[in-house]
TrEMBL record:
<dbReference type="Pfam" id="PF12054">
    <property type="entry name" value="DUF3535"/>
</dbReference>
<dbReference type="GO" id="GO:0016887">
    <property type="term" value="F:ATP hydrolysis activity"/>
</dbReference>
<feature type="region of interest" description="Disordered">
    <location>
        <begin position="605"/>
        <end position="637"/>
    </location>
</feature>
<dbReference type="GO" id="GO:0004386">
    <property type="term" value="F:helicase activity"/>
</dbReference>
<dbReference type="InterPro" id="IPR044972">
    <property type="entry name" value="Mot1"/>
</dbReference>
<dbReference type="InterPro" id="IPR011989">
    <property type="entry name" value="ARM-like"/>
</dbReference>
<feature type="domain" description="Helicase ATP-binding">
    <location>
        <begin position="902"/>
        <end position="1084"/>
    </location>
</feature>
<dbReference type="Pfam" id="PF00176">
    <property type="entry name" value="SNF2-rel_dom"/>
</dbReference>
<dbReference type="GO" id="GO:0003677">
    <property type="term" value="F:DNA binding"/>
</dbReference>
<keyword id="KW-0547">Nucleotide-binding</keyword>
<dbReference type="InterPro" id="IPR038718">
    <property type="entry name" value="SNF2-like_sf"/>
</dbReference>
<keyword id="KW-0378">Hydrolase</keyword>
<dbReference type="InterPro" id="IPR016024">
    <property type="entry name" value="ARM-type_fold"/>
</dbReference>
<keyword id="KW-0347">Helicase</keyword>
<dbReference type="InterPro" id="IPR014001">
    <property type="entry name" value="Helicase_ATP-bd"/>
</dbReference>
<protein>
    <submittedName>
        <fullName>TATA-binding protein-associated factor 172</fullName>
    </submittedName>
</protein>
<dbReference type="InterPro" id="IPR022707">
    <property type="entry name" value="Mot1_central_dom"/>
</dbReference>
């Protein structure tokens, strides 16, 4: 009962209006307060939760009772533990009240209250940890003076130790800012000259013995548990007192547990914890060495820190060097951001050691000692096996384990041709029968040596990859440290190469961002220096551009070398496949992703959903299957991941460069600005002036693709002052949207999507007049470029496109029936995206339309809105009036069918008429075909224009050919038949040749017929078999209507008939079928 009552109050307080809540608080507070002390955890938890949403109203409504509530919550903390259900809500309530009320507490009271929060700093609930840290921040801010002045040394030391330990364990990003904030508050130094010495001395006493230990904690190996029994590690009991007993269980840096199933996430969390730890140390170092000129303690501390870092930088541990670099960089960054802080310089010995470490690019790190030991053992075993097989390698035999093989010798063994060596040995042996051929590959020694060589190569490649990764991370960290302290060496490559390598190859995004940040700092330094560094800056920019182009093109083309592939993009020579210039690379990418998803789902479903069964399946897979499939998949996945990492890093670098220089970009980096401002436009002009009859990529085209790639990644981050140039460039980009080079088209489309995202209103009219008309172009490349650009515009705008759906959906729907397969599939993808946004457009449609619209926009929007209404509600279709009289009266359902056919005709769409047999499908089709020919003849009344009009094709079963001719004669009046001239195409080969001649020449068969009575044949009725046999004739003509009677015959797209039908080009395509779905919906 109590639980139900307090639960009802909680919801009432949460949802009722402001004035009602105040009244409820007055009447119910005493009851809720009583429930807080209830013996049932569930009741007390709900009581605390009911007051959290109204904490501000508590202070306003019942200020006299708030101190009583806060006092009770403080006293109740000692009874809580992690397993108590009310813990989270009580902590949230206490922290909220402390934060909102900020009661003035004396230092003695704070000293008493703060330790009560210590056990909850490591609570398993993220919300509790955040609330506790907020409460600590509020409590430490209540005093005007810094914590180091009023807080006892042991209390300050305990707080700092606890917060730092949490920093290397915290795995939630939303908690980390509060850890940093409380650390800043605890280490804050008063700038008052009278108290700065005392403040610094207390801080130094609280932290001096932990300076080295804390740095070592950030260097903790990821797979080694932290020793919580060590004297300097702080363990807290549930009552807030310090414990000397080592807790049970193991904890690791990055989290309280180590989960090998989430290795990638674990690595990222470890890096984030290390970075946070070094940030805290940088803040502490800044406070300790401030006022170095007047304080001997500061000078001694600086000397101690310098010696400590020199020691770690002199070691062979990549981890120690890397973390040292991060700590030094954080120290410099905080010193630079701190106001009224004395700017110190590092001792010369430390700077020199940094530069020395940066030059050691081939150092063998301690972290790889085990891997190198294993590698040396495999080399010894392989050399021994070679000697046993009488293969000479000129390498020393490892009789002594102290013998070390260098990398060049190991590489020589990995490249050794086992088969050739064994053949050479066999050739020297005398043979009893010269006719017998020796196959060395069948010998056991060959299999033994090949397997050992493969294992050695794998170990060598893995070890060298680990060495490269460690080297990149370590050297980039040291480079960041030197740049942060403005210690720029004369040899710029010592800084540039590690930073660029890290940006391009570092898997961790946080480390990439750090390197990109200091690369921008270096570029800014080079721009500000009086010496000429433009060549160095150009080298940096060009390398970033090349990396961005290579990776982007590699992923787009799914190739290792985009320069080679972009020259060819050659497909199969099969005549049925499109030429290379018709590729839509976005569509290729979507299809690859879909295939990968299907394969992944198929593999998961075949082995079960959990990881353990997946591992069992892999372990049970035969060696031959593994060697055949797995290396290829791993190589492809690894290559794509490397390119994605490079794109992420380089795009991050360009973003930081553009953000840093802002509107000064043209002055600071003229070479980068020139690409956006003038180079792209000049290349577009040059490209358009060239006549390209077939697709062939030149060096000029590659330069254009590079600049377009830069435009995409730089343009999206441009300062608003500089964006005007992008809008001017939009129309120029459309000029090459019909390029025969798919890669150029693809990159242009990406740029168009990016620009439309920045300011859609500015380029809306250009889309209407430039891109939309290209969807109706007779050139396939124009339609490919237009539909791909619309796909990118939809992708970039997404919800912002909702008010403008009507502008695109009609034209996209038309392309869903395009003659080109790729355009059709891309249009289908776009239509699906637009369709998902259409429900959001209902409210937009109810709003009053803008009065000041351009006539073009207004007319297009009106027509498209009408189309949407009629598409979604066929009852709104207008009745189609036949332009001629007929002796047959249309029934109501036939009028509805004719209205729908006229709707398709008006909007250049294609469809399936699915009425049942006997309802007049033939009659309705004849009416719409005759109407279309009649209307076109009326518009183009001259004989010359009439003869140029496209004929219509009707394909039906052979038994219905004459039936169609009879129906046309029956339903179409004589006046209209003067415009329609049908003919049956069939018979023997000789007969069909005669009919072909008659169709093509349009001359009367009878020579005595007068010339004025001759008329062109514009309706051809044929059978499916004849169509398949004479497809060369039929596909060479552009038809007006192509009607397939009983069209379900082509439901199997793999038959020769279906493939032949799909080669026909027609403005309107119509299928008649009473049974459109016989087995499943995919037949449609």
């Amino acid at each position: 009962t109590r639980h139900g009552g307090v639960l009802a109050l909680k919801y009432c307080l949460s949802v009722l209006q402001h004035e009602h809540v105040k009244e409820i608080i007055h009447q119910s507070f005493d009851a809720i307060f009583k429930c807080l002390a209830d013996n049932s955890d569930d009741v007390s938890a709900e009581a605390a939760a009911s007051l959290v949403p109204v904490k501000d109203l508590l202070l306003e409504t019942i200020p006299e009772k708030t101190p009583k509530l806060i006092k009770f919550l403080w006293e109740h903390l000692s009874d809580l533990d992690e397993l108590t259900s009310s813990t989270s809500n009580i902590i949230l309530l206490l922290a909220s009240l402390i934060t909102s009320s900020s009661p003035h507490l004396e230092p003695n009271q704070l000293i008493e209250h703060v330790p009560r929060l210590w056990p909850l700093v490591s609570h398993s609930s993220t919300s509790v940890r955040m609330s506790v840290l907020k409460a600590l921040i509020t409590l430490t801010k209540l005093q005007d003076s810094p914590c180091a002045l009023w807080m006892p040394t042991d209390l300050l030391s305990t707080n700092l130790r606890l917060v730092f330990q949490r920093s290397i364990l915290e795995n939630m990003n939303e908690v980390r800012p509060y850890i940093e904030a409380i650390w800043m508050q605890l280490t804050k130094i008063n700038r008052d000259k009278a108290s700065i010495s005392e403040c610094k001395l207390n801080l130094l006493k609280s932290t001096s013995q932990y300076l080295n230990y804390w740095l070592c904690l950030t260097m903790q190996p990821s797979r080694t548990p932290i020793d919580r029994g060590y004297a300097l590690w702080l363990n807290i009991r549930s009552d807030g007192t310090v414990s000397d007993v080592k807790p049970e269980g193991e904890i690791y840096i990055g989290s309280s547990t180590f989960n090998a199933d989430t290795m990638e996430q674990q690595k990222a969390e470890i890096t984030n914890c290390r970075i946070l730890g070094t940030k805290l140390l940088g803040v502490l170092y800044t406070s300790l060495v401030n006022d170095i000129e007047e304080s001997q303690h500061s000078r001694d501390t600086l000397k101690y820190l310098s010696d400590m870092f020199v020691h770690y930088l002199s070691s062979k541990s990549a981890n120690q060097r890397m973390i040292s670099g991060w700590a030094l960089e954080s120290w410099a960054a905080h010193q630079l951001s701190e106001e009224n802080c004395d700017k110190i310089t590092l001792p010369e010995a430390l700077i020199n050691q940094l530069k020395t470490a940066l030059k050691e690019t081939t150092l063998c790190y301690d972290e790889l000692a085990t891997a190198f030991t294993r590698l040396q053992q495999e080399v010894r075993d392989f050399v021994t096996s070679l000697v046993a097989a009488n293969i000479k390698t000129n390498l020393p035999i490892a009789t002594d384990r102290r013998l070390i093989y260098n990398l060049s010798q190991i590489q020589y063994l990995c490249d050794l041709d086992i088969e050739s060596e064994l053949n050479r040995i066999d050739s020297k042996k005398p043979s009893l029968d010269d006719t017998t051929s020796h196959d060395v590959t069948s010998k056991p020694v060959f299999s033994l040596l090949v397997n050992k060589k493969a294992a050695l190569s794998q170990s060598y490649q893995t070890t060298m990859a680990s060495q490269r990764n460690l080297s990149i991370s370590t050297l980039s960290s040291l480079a960041c440290a030197l740049i942060s302290w403005s210690s720029i060496p004369s040899n710029m490559n010592l800084l540039i190469n590690p930073l660029l390598d890290s940006i391009e190859k570092e898997c961790d995004s946080a480390m990439q961002e750090k390197s990109a940040k200091y690369l921008v700092r270096l570029i800014d330094y080079l721009c500000c220096e009086p010496g000429s560094h433009q060549e160095v800056i150009s080298t940096i920019i060009n390398r970033l551009i090349d990396a961005l182009y290579f990776s982007s093109a590699s992923i787009t083309l799914n190739a290792d070398d985009p320069n080679l592939v972009s020259r060819s993009l050659v497909k199969s020579t099969d005549d049925e496949k499109l030429i290379d210039g018709h590729r839509i690379l976005l569509l290729d990418s979507l299809q690859r992703k879909a295939d990968q998803s299907r394969n992944l789902i198929r593999r998961q479903s075949s082995v079960g959903g959990n990881t353990s069964s997946l591992k069992r399946s892999i372990s049970q897979t035969s060696a031959s299957e593994f060697e055949t499939n797995e290396p290829v998949q791993e190589a492809t996945s690894s290559r794509l991941k490397a390119q994605e990492v490079k794109i992420r890093g380089v795009s991050m670098a360009f973003k930081l460069i553009v953000d840093h220089f802002g509107h000064k970009l043209p002055d600071k980096l003229p070479q980068l600005w020139a690409i956006i401002n003038s180079s792209v436009k000049a290349q577009i002009d040059s490209y358009c002036s060239q006549v390209k009859k077939e697709y062939n990529t030149s060096e000029t085209d590659i330069k254009l693709i590079k600049d377009l790639t830069v435009l995409e990644f730089v343009g999206q981050n441009l300062n608003t002052v500089l964006r005007g140039n992008l809008f001017e460039l939009f129309a120029d980009l459309i000029r090459i949207l019909n390029s025969t080079n798919p890669l150029i088209r693809h990159q242009v489309c990406r740029c168009l999507g990016m620009i439309s995202k920045l300011e859609f209103k500015s380029i809306e009219s250009i889309i209407l007049t430039g891109i939309i008309p290209m969807l109706e172009s007779s050139e396939v490349t124009s339609r490919c470029g237009a539909i791909e650009s619309i796909a990118f515009i939809i992708e970039h705008l997404n919800l912002e496109l909702v008010p403008k759906i009507d502008m695109l959906i009609v034209h996209v729907l038309r392309r869903m029936s395009d003659q080109n397969d790729r355009v059709r599939m891309m249009a289908t993808h776009c239509f699906g995206k637009l369709l998902s946004l259409m429900p959001l457009n209902d409210e937009q449609a109810k709003q009053p339309k803008q009065q000041q619209l351009v006539d073009l926009k207004q007319s297009m929007k009106s027509e498209e809105s009408e189309f949407i209404e009629q598409l979604l509600d066929p009852r709104k279709l207008k009745n189609h009036q036949l332009p001629f009289e007929t002796s047959v009266q249309l029934r109501s359902y036939q009028q509805d069918g004719l209205n729908w056919l006229a709707f398709l005709n008006r909007f250049n769409l294609h469809g399936i008429l699915c009425d049942e047999m006997g309802l007049g499908k033939t009659f309705m089709t004849i009416c719409i075909v005759a109407s279309d020919h009649f209307n076109r003849a009326s518009r183009d009344s001259s004989p010359e224009n009439r003869s140029k009009q496209s004929p219509s094709l009707i394909v039906c079963p052979s038994t219905l050919v004459e039936h169609w001719l009879d129906e046309i004669e029956k339903f179409v009046p004589s006046k209209t038949r003067s415009i329609l001239n049908p003919i049956a195409y069939g018979g023997s080969a000789t007969d069909r040749i005669s009919i072909k001649h008659r169709i093509s020449s349009t001359q009367p068969v009878d020579s005595n017929q007068k010339p004025e009575n001759e008329k062109a044949i514009n309706i051809i009725v044929t059978s499916y078999d004849v169509l398949r046999n004479d497809i060369e004739f039929f596909k060479s003509t552009e038809w007006n209507y192509c009607v397939l009677d009983e069209g379900h015959i082509i439901k199997n797209g793999k038959t020769k008939l279906s493939k032949a039908v799909r080669l026909i080009t027609a403005k309107h395509r119509l299928i008649l079928s009473g049974t459109p779905i016989q087995n499943n919906v995919t037949e449609l």
